[in-house]
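Notebook, bench 3.
Goal today: get a predicted structure for FAD-binding oxidoreductase from Paraburkholderia strydomiana so we can plan the truncation constructs. The sequence was checked against the plasmid map this morning, with no discrepancies at the termini. Length recorded as 449 residues. Pasting the sequence as submitted so the record is complete.
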Amino acid sequence: MLAPALHNDSQRPQPDSLWRAMAARVAQRQPPVSTGAPLARDLAVDVAVIGAGYSGLSAAYALQKRGVDCAVFDANPVGWGASGRNGGVVSSKFRLSFPQIDKLHGLDAAKRMHRLAHDGVRVVESFIDEFKLERAHFEHTGSLRCAHTERAFAAICAEADWVRTQLGDTSMTVQPREEVRRETGSSEFVGGVLSADAGTILPLEYVYGLARGLTERGVPIYEATPVVEMTRSQGGPAGVVLRTPGGTVRARQVIVATNAYSDLTSATAAYQRELVPFRSAMIATERLPAELDDRLMTQRRSYTETRRMMKWFRKVDGRMLFGGRDAFGKEGQATGFDALQRAMVALFPDLADLRIEYQWSGYVGMTFNALPHAGRSDDATTFCLGYNGAGVAMASLLGQHAAALALGETPELALLGQQGLRPVPFHSLRAPGVRVVAAWYQFLDAVGA
Ligand SMILES: Cc1cc2nc3c(=O)[nH]c(=O)nc-3n(C[C@H](O)[C@H](O)[C@H](O)COP(=O)(O)OP(=O)(O)OC[C@H]3O[C@@H](n4cnc5c(N)ncnc54)[C@H](O)[C@@H]3O)c2cc1C
């Protein structure tokens, strides 16, 4: 038996998040999700999927629907990675705006990317319907981007106008200062732009629901099963041999869906070099007093702000949930949470005396060109990764496209398609590089530039 060469993070349980507490409450009323025990024998499948987050589970579903024999393997429990920790903002955009995509790649590319972005939300909706995921509480309530300066407001208004005139998309509407103040309960914003094709979800329930649906459809999910070695099979047709502590898996194709946790073992570490992992942190307050609950975030949307070191927030379980990127801390460290609380109170002074009851973090996978990537790294291996912090909808979509790629199809990927691996240049300098950029962004945000 091989000794699993695991990165320290995977020894840790999933953080004690609000999502876990809410899932535990549901589990008291309904039976918990029961997926897989670890792999304890040798196995042969057509397609092996590594990673049981949105990407991997969505890929497995696309394979199962086509009648392809597949199995999912994860070093940890289902949803242990970003899929069980995120803010649950379901969005129809990329980190690069559509006008920026037009400038860099032309209008046709912007149109194709715009379709993909909205396809992501459609995939989430289809999972909710097909798998009957009521527990995930998907609400198509829209997302409001709140401007922190007049200059930022002008920029997001211009973007909404461009999307309407050039792409014919009328789902983005401008909201003046007073309306944003009334809806959010914060006086700190000068206006906002509402994207109607967006919403909120309970992220851990969503990934549990996907796993439950797959298990019911006969797709095995092996938890606590790290892939510790991945080699090409010798002789015969193209294929891969995956070694896990409990058994060997032979597959014709493998889909690597390990995103910002790819360095858990050396077998998948090459995919980590496609990314700059960035820590993202979240806090949740105690339940809001009734008066605040009635006044804050009355439309139950998700909210983001325009600062470069962006913060986002929503109300869930009667609490304020507040998140932001924290380039300076490491996962599991207590740093960064105080800064988040200060940022929250600056926007919502009424929350100053509320206790923070949950705090947790995880890694998002940023890419060099700020776009997700899906492609083949060789003739037996497909990957999808790099959602740049907006992966609930996009990983649900790209997982399906990765399945299609593994079967030799050519799904529409616009700018997201990538042939072979293209490691981030100077990858070993990524951690100090991220800190320098983040410090610069914080400075620009502070001076209102
Ligand atoms: C704090 C936080 C907040 C976020 N907020 C939002 C948000 O509000 N909206 C949004 O759209 N996106 C958000 N994101 C991003 C989003 O969560 C991710 O883009 C998405 O979950 C990626 O899913 P995934 O399946 O690709 O990866 P993950 O969910 O990270 O899954 C990867 C899995 O691979 C497994 N693995 C890794 N290596 C191996 C190996 N060698 N063998 C076996 N298994 C392995 C890991 O155990 C892990 O379970 C957030 C992310 C974080 C961390």
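The two ends are 57 Å apart (CA to CA). Residues 1-8 have pLDDT under 50 and may be disordered.
Flagging this for group meeting.
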